[in-house]
């Protein structure tokens, strides 16, 4: 006999376990918290997941269909990055924050990339305080918190070096000194974002690389497709 505290009396426990794994909960039911649902999906499909702490105490949601359809339903209202090794094969999910409201989202933008080792490289148009667009090649880097550029571009983009904020950043090769500011706009393909934080690091520490980090990427829902060498940006 079911306990009086059983929220779904008469429903077999194996069925409930299957629901927990596959996200098929009865209408109006909550499968624990949203973070628990996503963690279960990550375990089931073998991908890593970051940013669950951004969901706070968000209740569970109903989600059906394929894995990408279920993630889309569960993460409605959030921006995230989805890295795929091939279509349907998710390697990594990064929840970057709450989506910004207002206006109708534009169509998703599919942007071809050039592979540089394990990284994807794209062309970006940067506009600094002087208002002059500069086209540069940048590596898509979800591990970088901001757009990262060499200090030699400070004057090129029209920044006043003395007005930039000094700081320290931790990198794979150790701590580096940074100068931080805000780019009026950054555009990749048709996808543009305004007021994008940027960090400038000594040229010799970057070895010629420039990074398209999370201060730009977290404005979008991002899919990184390793098989087809492309990224898909969908603004929210």
What would you report as the Rg, rounded to the nearest angstrom? 21 Å
- How would you sum up the major sheet? 8 strands, mixed
Number of helices: 6
Strand content: 35-45%
What is the element string, with H for helices and E for strands? HHEHEEEEEEEHEEEHEHEE
Cα shape = elongated
CATH class descriptor name of the largest domain: Mainly Beta
CATH architecture of the largest domain: Beta Barrel
Overall pLDDT score: 81
> In percent, how helical is the residue content?
10-25%
Derived from helix and strand composition plus strand pairing, the structural class reads alpha/beta
CATH topology name of the largest domain, in short, is: Cathepsin D, subunit A, domain 1
Compute the separation of the termini in Å.
48 Å
Give the SSE layout.
Elements: H1 13-22, H2 34-45, E1 48-50, H3 67-74, E2 78-86, E3 89-98, E4 109-112, E5 114-116, E6 119-127, E7 133-140, E8 147-150, H4 153-156, E9 165-171, E10 174-188, E11 191-201, H5 203-206, E12 211-212, H6 214-217, E13 220-225, E14 230-235
Parallel strand pairs: 1-3, 2-13, 7-12, 8-11
Antiparallel strand pairs: 2-3, 4-14, 5-6, 6-7, 6-10, 9-10, 10-11, 13-14
In words, what does this structure look like?
Its EC number is 3.4.23.-. GO terms for molecular function: aspartic-type endopeptidase activity. It comes from Methylococcus geothermalis. The chain has 236 residues and is an alpha/beta fold. It has two domains: 13-98, 3-Layer(bab) Sandwich (Phage tail protein beta-alpha-beta fold), CATH 3.55.50; 109-219, Beta Barrel (Cathepsin D, subunit A, domain 1), CATH 2.40.70.10. 18% of the residues lie in helices and 41% in strands. The protein has six helices and 14 strands. The strands form two sheets. Strands 5, 6, 7, 8, 9, 10, 11 and 12 form an eight-stranded mixed β-sheet that branches. A six-stranded mixed β-sheet has the order 1-3-2-13-14-4. The longest helix is centred in the N-terminal third of the chain and has 12 residues, at 34-45. The radius of gyration is 21 Å and the shape is elongated. The termini are far apart.
């Amino acid at each position: 006999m079911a306990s009086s505290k059983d929220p779904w009396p008469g429903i077999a426990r194996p069925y409930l376990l299957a629901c927990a794994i596959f996200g098929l909960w009865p209408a109006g039911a909550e499968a624990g918290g949203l973070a628990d649902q996503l963690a279960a999906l990550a375990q089931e499909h073998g991908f890593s997941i970051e940013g669950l702490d951004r969901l706070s105490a968000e209740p569970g949601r109903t989600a059906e269909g394929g894995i990408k359809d279920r993630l889309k339903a569960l993460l409605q209202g959030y921006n995230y990055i989805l890295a795929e090794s091939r279509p349907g094969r998710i390697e990594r999910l990064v929840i970057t924050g709450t989506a910004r409201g207002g206006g109708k989202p534009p169509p998703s933008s599919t942007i071809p990339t050039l592979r540089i080792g394990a990284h994807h490289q794209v062309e970006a148009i940067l506009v600094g305080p002087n208002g002059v667009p500069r086209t540069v090649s940048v590596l898509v880097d979800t591990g970088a918190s901001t757009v990262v550029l060499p200090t030699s571009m400070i004057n090129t983009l029209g920044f006043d070096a003395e007005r930039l904020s000094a700081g320290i950043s931790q990198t794979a090769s150790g701590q580096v000194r940074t100068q931080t500011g805000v780019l009026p706009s950054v555009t990749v393909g048709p996808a543009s974002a305004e007021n994008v934080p940027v960090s400038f690091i000594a040229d010799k520490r970057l070895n010629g690389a420039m990074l398209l980090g999370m201060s730009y990427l977290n404005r979008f829902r991002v899919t990184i497709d390793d098989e087809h060498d492309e990224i898909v940006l969908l603004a929210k």
